[in-house]
Amino acid sequence: MIKGQIRRKTAAVLLAAAMALTAAACSSGSEGGASGDGGTGTKTDPNKPKDPVTLVIKHTTYETFDQDLAPAIKKYQEKNPHVTVKVEMVKPKQGENIITANTALFASGEQVDILRVSPNVGAGEYAARGWVVPLDEYVKKSGVDITRYYPALQNRGVYAGKRYALPWIHSQFMIFYNKDLFQKYGIPEPKLNWTYEDMRSAGRKLVENNVHAFESSLPNMLHIVGGAWGGSTFNPAGSQMTLDSQGALKGYEFFRDMIVKDGLIPGKVTQAKGMPGGPNMTKGTAGMSFTWLKMKQFDEAGLNYGVVPSPVGPGKQQGYGALDGIALSSTSKNKEEAWNLIKFLAYDNEGQLEQIKQKITIPAFPNEKEQIAAWERTIGKKDVTDAILYQVEKTNEEGVGMMNNMPGTEVAYEGFITWLGQNLFADNFDLYAQVPAKVKEFNAQWTELQKEAEKQMKK
């Protein structure tokens, strides 16, 4: 997923114990606020050289993230020569997930100043475990205007009435396609409003010519198929899944048929045709990829590619956004310095431009023409940028994507999607009976996790 680790999680009672352990290992808050004197009330000499500071950013995304972020970090260090920034990955071990990996991190006592909040998890999880502190006072005193962000992004990082993260690393899941293969086999290039039937037809044509329709990332589409058929993902409060609706079930049925009967990802159909495994866009063995924005990887490979939004289904949902957050660690001993870096990366124009040039984020501010222009120049393909900005607008209108802030989201929602991907294509799978039962089961577990989180927040 945006680089997600999605696995079945432990029972609520064990997670509750882990919450308590982590909260005990972390300091309690953001005393000192965002004042220039650190809350001491004493004045400092502006001409006095600042003491050297090392800030550590921890993340659970992908191994080369530090390289992608390096130009922005370099720019910040040039402006703040007393600051050294390290970007380090917290890599879950076999059988671990983002939550358990971060729990071990804080229990270890390692330095953590800033956390990249995974879109799979949500800021509420980080807050309930005591890993991060509220940013409201920092935001207020620094003059950060949250309304600059797209409306659908503004609440990312808010839980229980407090802001625990700023929106950061704005992305979209879209469909990339190999233009050369589409032209070779006479497949019409997708348009902005193409449908699931159009996608299915293109996939069939590729398979007929012994080319895999999709790379292995297609099951990520299970996140949006339910909504595309008219079934919403969550209730209005974002606290329960509603993926047992008739609309969602019809969407899953279509998706299963597309995989099982048409062979749009490797399986019995492609095996019967003798097609090799390991479909790969850059190697020409797959025609499409449903994935986060991978322009940088495809450009480096010299691929002649196009981009199109997620297909239109019978329902209204088309967009599928992904948005991380950036948060201030409760254990940081340099909270003021850490906040300054957070603001630079997630809000300041200079920091945003450096990340846009690295193709790791879409402009998150709709009215910042300089950022959008820089991004369009960086991508260099008008059809690509038009398609991405179109889906950004759709996502903003629909308010959908991997942006839930509730504790337990990874356990419940991502756990359900993982279970669905593992079982949906089985011969004996009773979709209309088993999916509603599993949604009910995960929702019950989610409710218990949210209750436990509320108890932890009161402590």
TrEMBL record:
Question: What Pfam families would the database entry show?
Answer: SBP_bac_1
Region entry Disordered: which residue ranges? 28-52
| PROSITE patterns for the chain | PROKAR_LIPOPROTEIN (PS51257)
Q: Where is the signal peptide?
A: 1-25
The domain of life for this entry's organism is Bacteria
InterPro entries annotated for this entry? Bact_solute-bd_prot1 (IPR050490), SBP (IPR006059)
Q: What UniProt keywords are attached to this protein's entry?
A: Signal
Q: Where do Gly residues bias regions lie? A: 30-41
Membrane-crossing residues? none
Name of this protein: Sugar ABC transporter substrate-binding protein
Q: Which species is this UniProt entry from?
A: Paenibacillus flagellatus
Lineage of the organism: Bacteria, Bacillati, Bacillota, Bacilli, Bacillales
